[in-house]
């Protein structure tokens, strides 16, 4: 391992102290972001929170978290949401408290996992510091997507299932690294358990975990002719994948086979790579250098395997496979972090002028990414101006959750709400009520989701006769209608007041009770 006081010549503290300080500061940002609630309506946050709430209501037989359907129609009921559903049930805590706690726990899991894996695998005490900094800051414009760990997305997605799965993957890779180096069976056992948890919680991230473990085996066990260790990693991965077929909450087979088509889902992750990854591309020549020199081959293999999966998914038009973009980007980040480690080691063995020169390079290298990430995170804070076009021009609905909090006093489990788009998406997590239509694509209810979306669009058509609107209310057992006051047609408003009653109007929204029919 590297010397204990690796940062002595800059800070007068150890590398571990620097890393802990960074993680504590980042954790405070995660908590502040979670509890200030700057959540736009369209984020996956709401479906994750709704799944936790549905499991808290009935952990063994939950209903679909968004619409009034059986729970087997949702792929959100995974070990991660089951655990937090049980916590919510036992504590009685509300949605925002549970999601905030989940965000903090996930942050701690990732921070510890990144430290354990990178410090052990690469034998640099400063590697965790540089790996964290590069992972958060070295991007171009970035992607608005889970598993995209630039600073803004780190805060946004900290409570997501994919974030949890990536954090646990790092712990699994720590045990895989120890196993392929030392051959201790308990390490292979821990890898099997954690890899299975990752695969069950989030299969795309599970793919990363298994491929990265394969990269470790190819770079460590294969050259030493420890073929048994390589086989053991493959067997553990096979068992982890097999666990998908015995998961009781829904059919992973149906979910995965539907995910092989482009009918229900579109991924933007095959475009804009140059602009969005930015300086992360500098990791490519670094990887070529490592490959030619036979150094850090686990990073080279990890990049190649994840890039291969990404290209294969693109070739067969498997849209969900675009997520492997973030996994091969992670290996680019590791490559750049290793460069910094080497510069750090070189500067530590030279005079003060050399050290200051390296510090200058590092600072200059970070100026643009820090500015980009700060601007990205800043726009999500309350009161900050939003970019033009972030809210669809066809609607005037409020785009922040604060405008919808009043609905908690009027809606609850058993209610079904007719609402448009993202306005209805937040209701299950916020109130426990169901909505007629889903907002994001759903692999297990593709036809049903399309039919429900058409029903909602038809209901809010200006010219639709009330008799047909009433038929839709009856068909989906609607108890309430949520509308935008500024875009609501006068004729529909009059019909809603006649057929039901105005419950409350606030923040440009109006809630009408139409009663069970």
Give me the secondary-structure topology.
Elements: H1 15-36, H2 45-57, H3 79-91, H4 95-122, H5 127-137, H6 151-157, H7 161-182, H8 185-201, H9 203-221, H10 227-242, H11 252-259, H12 273-277, H13 283-293, H14 297-315, H15 324-348, H16 352-378, E1 416-418, H17 421-425, H18 427-431, E2 434-435, H19 446-459, H20 466-475, E3 480-484, H21 490-499, E4 501-506, E5 509-513
Parallel strand pairs: 1-2, 1-3
Antiparallel strand pairs: 3-5, 4-5
Structure summarized in a few sentences:
With 517 residues, the chain is mainly alpha-helical. The protein has helices spanning 15-36, 45-57, 79-91, 95-122, 127-137, 151-157, 161-182, 185-201, 203-221, 227-242, 252-259, 273-277, 283-293, 297-315, 324-348, 352-378, 421-425, 427-431, 446-459, 466-475, 490-499, and strands at residues 416-418, 434-435, 480-484, 501-506, 509-513. It is built from 21 helices and 5 strands.
Task: Please describe what this structure looks like.
By secondary structure, the chain is mainly alpha-helical. It contains 21 helices and five strands. A five-stranded mixed beta sheet has the order 2-1-3-5-4. Helix 9 packs antiparallel against helix 10 and helix 15 packs antiparallel against helix 16. The chain is elongated and about 80 Å long.
């Amino acid at each position: 391992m590297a010397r204990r006081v690796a940062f002595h010549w800059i800070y007068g503290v150890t590398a571990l102290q620097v890393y802990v300080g960074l993680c504590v500061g980042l954790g405070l940002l995660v908590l502040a972001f979670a509890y200030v609630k700057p959540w736009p309506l369209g984020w996956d946050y709401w479906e994750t929170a709704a799944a936790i709430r549905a499991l808290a209501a009935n952990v063994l037989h939950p209903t679909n978290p968004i619409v009034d359907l059986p729970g087997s129609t949702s792929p959100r009921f995974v070990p991660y949401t089951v655990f937090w559903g049980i916590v919510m049930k036992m504590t009685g805590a509300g949605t925002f408290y549970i999601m905030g706690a989940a965000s903090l726990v996930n942050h701690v899991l990732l921070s510890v996992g990144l430290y354990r894996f990178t410090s052990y695998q690469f034998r640099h005490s400063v590697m965790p510091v540089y790996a964290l900094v590069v992972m958060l800051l070295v991007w171009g414009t970035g992607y608005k997507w889970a598993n995209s760990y630039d600073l803004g997305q780190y805060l946004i997605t900290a409570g997501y299932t994919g974030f949890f799965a990536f954090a646990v993957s790092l712990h699994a890779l720590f045990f895989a690294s120890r196993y392929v180096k030392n051959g201790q069976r308990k390490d292979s056992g821990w890898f099997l358990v954690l890899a299975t948890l990752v695969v069950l919680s989030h299969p795309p991230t599970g793919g990363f975990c298994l491929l990265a473990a394969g990269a470790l085996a190819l770079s460590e066990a294969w050259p030493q002719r420890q073929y048994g260790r390589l086989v053991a990693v493959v067997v553990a991965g096979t068992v982890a994948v097999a666990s998908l077929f015995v998961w009781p909450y829904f059919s992973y087979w149906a979910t995965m086979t539907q995910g092989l088509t482009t009918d229900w889902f579109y991924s933007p992750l095959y475009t804009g790579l140059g602009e969005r990854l930015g300086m992360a591309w500098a990791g490519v020549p670094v990887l070529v250098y490592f490959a030619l020199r036979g150094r850090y081959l686990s990073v080279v293999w990890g990049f190649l395997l994840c890039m291969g999966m990404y290209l294969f998914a693109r070739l067969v038009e498997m849209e969900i496979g675009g997520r492997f973009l973030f996994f091969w980007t992670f290996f680019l980040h590791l490559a750049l972090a290793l460069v910094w480690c080497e510069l750090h080691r070189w500067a530590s063995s030279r005079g003060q002028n050399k050290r200051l020169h390296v510090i200058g390079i590092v600072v200059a290298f970070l100026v643009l990414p820090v500015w980009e990430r700060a601007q990205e995170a800043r726009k999500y804070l309350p009161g900050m101006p939003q970019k033009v076009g972030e809210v669809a021009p066809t609607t005037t609905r409020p785009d922040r959750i604060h405008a919808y909090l009043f609905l908690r006093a009027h809606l609850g489990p058993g209610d079904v709400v007719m609402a448009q788009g993202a306005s209805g998406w937040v209701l299950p997590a916020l109130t426990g009520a169901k909505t007629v239509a889903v907002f994001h694509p759903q692999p297990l209810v593709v036809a049903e989701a399309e039919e429900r979306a058409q029903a909602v669009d038809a209901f809010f058509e200006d010219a639709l006769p009330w008799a047909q609107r009433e038929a839709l209310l009856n068909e989906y057992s609607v108890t309430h209608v949520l509308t935008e006051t500024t875009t609501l047609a006068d004729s529909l408003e009059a019909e809603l007041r006649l057929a039901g009653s105005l419950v409350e109007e606030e923040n440009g929204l109006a809630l009408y009770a139409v009663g069970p029919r």
